[in-house]
Amino acid sequence: MSGAFQGVLAFVQAWWVELLCAMLILLVVPLIAGYIVLVERKVMADMQARLGPMRVGPHGLLQPIADALKLLIKEDLIPDNADQFIFWFAPVLSMTAALTSMGAVAFGPWFHVARDINIGLLFVVGISALGPFGIVLGGWASNNHYSIIGAIRSTAQLISYETTAGFALVSGFLLAGTLKVSDIVEHQRADNVWYVFLAPVGFVTYLIASIAETNRAPFDLPEAESELVAGYMTEYSGFRWSLYFLAEYANMIVVGAVGTTLFLGGWLRPFPNVRWLGWVDAFPALLLVAVGAYCVARAGKQPVRVQRLFMWGVAGLCFAVALIFALAAPVSFAPLKLAYAGLYGAFWFLLKVSAYIYIFMWLRFTLPRFRFDQLMRLGWHILIPLALVNVIGVGIGLAINSALGWQGWMTIVGMLPTTLATIFVGMLLIRWNDKHAAAASAPVVTEVREAEDSYAG
Amino acid sequence: MADTIHDTAPHKADTLLGADELVINMGPQHPSTHGVLRVKLKLDGERVIGSECVIGYLHRGVEKIAENRSYQQFAPYVDRMDYVAAISNGLGYCEAVEKLLMAEAPPRARVIRVILTELQRIASHLLWLGTHALDIGALTPLFYCMREREEILKIFEKYCGARLTTHAFRIGGLQYEAYDTLEKDVERFCKGFDARIQEYSDLLTGNSIWIGRTRNVGVLNAADCIALGASGPVLRASGVKWDLRKAMPYAAYDQYQFEIPVGTNGDTYDRYLVRIEEMRQSRLICLQAIENIPAGPIMARVGKVLKPPPGEVYHAIEAPKGILGYYIVSDGGTQPYRVRVRPPSFVNLQALDKMIRGHLVTDVVAIIGTLDIVLGEVDR
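Above: the input entities. Below: the structure tokens describing the complete assembly.
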């Protein structure tokens, strides 16, 4: 008994940082996902000349919490003909995969669960590739034609775009020379350059592939609300549905985190090694103080007590974190320094992830949806060849750089010829694809049946 | 489920589904069947190999109701057929009854009718554009379209108090005189609207995803259109220059200069372009009409109780969705003996099966959208 207890104690003592991070992720990620939904609705409203949620809390700030409560108390429906267990299991699988893959994501210098894992990003990619199983199983278990079509679309789409994303990541791995998350970031600090500047094509292909991987518009064919009602989620309601929903947004955070880590310098601030830009370090604290002050100013105007408390709570959190930022420099207290490093890194990291996710939203509200064959054509005819060419191009660029002994900013110059060549190849691919795309829309009539089945369905 | 189908179907051999075939019921509750249209789709994978429209979920017996109402009483009912273009419906009905009465609305009334009807055409096309884009996955144009449509509806509201089912016209002319700032309101709308259409074009016309989703999708050539009786933008996108406003002018359309936009391929993209251009032309008609609204009475002398002489009349107008015809038989009484409506949506919907066969499920919603149907009008 005591042995078991001591074992647990020893485990906790050895892994308390990781456990803390895991707890933070488990608690905070669904909340962040909920707030990304709110931000998305606000961004959408902004682009569509509307206001978006305004009722629950100031500017709808409590909307995610109200939505979560509503979804929790909704009736839990499982269709009679559904496969009960798989129907129950599928959204859990999606959500688990999304949260687990968050484990290897580094939010700050020490701020990640899997600290010593030397295949970091591979782990993320591998685990998050399990998520689609949730979609496929959910679609299958629903026993609904729309769901099954959505599930099948999802399978094909995920297989195609995982490949692209994989190749795009390989170009980043070539530059970093490692798969370990923290090393990748530190290499970018050492190289004095974010890898997006060395492999822009890799970043763009990863961006596109990651939109497709997370089933976001214009690649949201598995859901395709105007065609398949809600695709694989058609039969889901209440909290099961919201698990899928949260998984989608958590996946956005994951792909954003991977893209940020590999291409955008992870938790580093812009120009981390430029000394005269050191004043940028004050930016997080100032921003948090500003947000906190706004919350204090608006708190008194909230009509309901819960809302006032919420505003005070947010303000308090902002001031607390700002205090850590402010005190870290003058006070030499080890845990404070540690907390500062982690939170400071997390600030920049989340800022970059937010920018990444903003691109998702921007595209979603601007572009029409692809058709399935067009999606496949884009994947296999353009993106996969382009990503492959890019891997070769980055390799050649690296060889040029090492042969000439260039380092730092000069590596961009070394990469330039192959980057331009890759872009040229991409344009050729697009032109070639366009030539064949128009014909693909024409109907394919295989057989004309005279006697139509009036009774089917 | 499949077994029960086979057991209850009368012709077993015909109704057997192949192992690779799937039947889905699109509608009547579906986000993009524009109301309560139900389309049974037989799919091979995602490819449509057969389809059947099931209509009637919104049937209200409008034509039968007409037989028990006086001519004036029935006028508001026609607004409920194509409820997004109520004014056009009203125009068709009022003119048909006027023809039956051998009366004619005064010039002032006719010009105001043209202004409101053309605004209604723009409003109807805006709603079509927004929902069509939404069907194809572009979320944002809907809200821009609604923003402009709102301005038009406000003009309607100022004119007759109603926004959607307006009952704006009366048999013999108009009930309401144009309000003081009608010309100014219409002019302000038209002046701003040109730039707004350009916004939609910027969002969609050159967008390669949009082109990919609409070009060569749902092709209907001119011969098919004529054979199926399709009319309106669907017909014109196939290259047939047939617009009743030019071919058989009614109201005051013979006074105005405007173009009839036609397409070449008869695909979804052409229908999109035709409708966009039609909005531009409608705007020009409105601008011409407000220049010179003749003075004079707004109501012809038709009497309080309408008793058309026995006989029958067919009158068709170019509604936003196509040719809207009214066939009215009078037995000399105060109520029509029979009213038959030729609704453009209903006739155009016939083309659906021909257009979606061989396409993917995704294209089905694009094609339903491009037909611009309103189920109130299909089912009546």
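Note for the figure: Residues 107-136 of chain B form the longest helix (30 residues).
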